[in-house]
Amino acid sequence: MDLDIGEVARRSGLPVSALRYYEEKGLIAPNGRRGLRRQYDAGVMQRLALIALGRNAGFSLDEIGRLIPAGPGDAPALDRKMLAARADELTSTIQELTVLRDALRHTAACRAPSHAECPTFMAALSHPGRIAPFRGKRKLTK
Amino acid sequence: MDLDIGEVARRSGLPVSALRYYEEKGLIAPNGRRGLRRQYDAGVMQRLALIALGRNAGFSLDEIGRLIPAGPGDAPALDRKMLAARADELTSTIQELTVLRDALRHTAACRAPSHAECPTFMAALSHPGRIAPFRGKRKLTK
DNA sequence: GTTCCAGCTCAAGTCGGCTTGAGGTCAAGG
DNA sequence: CCTTGACCTCAAGCCGACTTGAGCTGGAAC
């Protein structure tokens, strides 16, 4: 029992335009068509979940495409190396965010007359190498 | 002893084009000009550090502009409420990323013949509400 | 049999954060 | 004097991930 694109949109929370876009990018594909209409089988939902997972992990759609080629017989074949690498990156991202959050929290709470006089704040400011933005493609996710 | 834009670029790691762009957005301003050339005082470095901090925390340049108006006498006046709110958001972002990283790591290591047979993987997939992308402006930072 | 609705295609637009390019200015050095 | 190099302005372009709009189709309901 196949699903109309609208139904997939409803179930996934993604706009139909995004679904068509994903198709264009080769991330999903309808089972076939009924007339003009794309018909999806229920498995697409899992694939979308997987894509979302990837997006949340900071992969671009192109990377996701490389990461989860539709394996033969529909089980996505994941690239374990890429996953492990991203896991490591996430670890350092998490680390940075944690430092940042603590600094933010402290700064918000700190009652020094001027932030310039708060050592925690100043320490966060002079944290080495933090001025130039990440040059990576990490995005998380908009 | 004032700095040329090129010197600021060198010290901060930011391209000059980005510095001019920041100026256009009202985030930094030269001390004055010598001929046509912008001259910055050393304090700009701290301000850039602050901006970088904000970007890393996921604020847009516009938000940063609102967050750190150049206080009277050059000490930036931070909006403590906004900071606290973002700290809370960071906490949940961190939480999500941690779950994700663990799932990734596990998936990479897992030797089940197909990922479909790995319960950890499947659990990550069906984690509720994770399909639709965040609609916020969070970006982290590119 | 016409009015709808959901779907279709293709091209163009949007947004943030810059970058790039063309063309101009200016001080210092050979 | 003329070149070089660092800077200047302004307009346009770029990237990813979609969205929007115009104009079309095809089945179903009245």
Beta-strand content estimate of chain A: 5-15%
Compute the number of strand runs of chain A.
3
Q: In the CATH hierarchy, what is the architecture of the largest domain in chain A at level 2?
A: Orthogonal Bundle
Taken from the alpha-carbon principal axes, the silhouette of chain A is elongated
Order of helices and strands of chain A: EHHEEHHHH
Give the assembly state of these chains.
homodimer
Briefly note the CATH topology name of the largest domain in chain A: Multidrug-efflux Transporter Regulator, Chain: A, Domain 2
Order of neighbouring strands in the sheet with most strands of chain A: 1-3-2
How many structurally independent domains of chain A?
2
Q: In words, what does this structure look like?
A:
The structure is a homodimer of 142-residue chains. With 142 residues, chain A is mostly helical. Chain A has two domains: 3-74, Multidrug-efflux Transporter Regulator, Chain: A, Domain 2; 80-125. Chain A has six helices and three strands. Chain A has helices at 5-12, 16-24, 43-56, 61-67, 80-109, 119-125, and strands spanning 3-4, 32-34, 37-40. In chain A, strands 1-3-2 form a three-stranded antiparallel β-sheet. The longest helix of chain A has 30 residues, at 80-109. The relative contact order of chain A is 0.10. Chains A and B meet through helix 3 and helix 5 of A and helix 3 and helix 5 of B. Chain A binds a DNA duplex (30 and 30 nucleotides) through helix 2. Chains A, B: Pfam families: MerR_1.
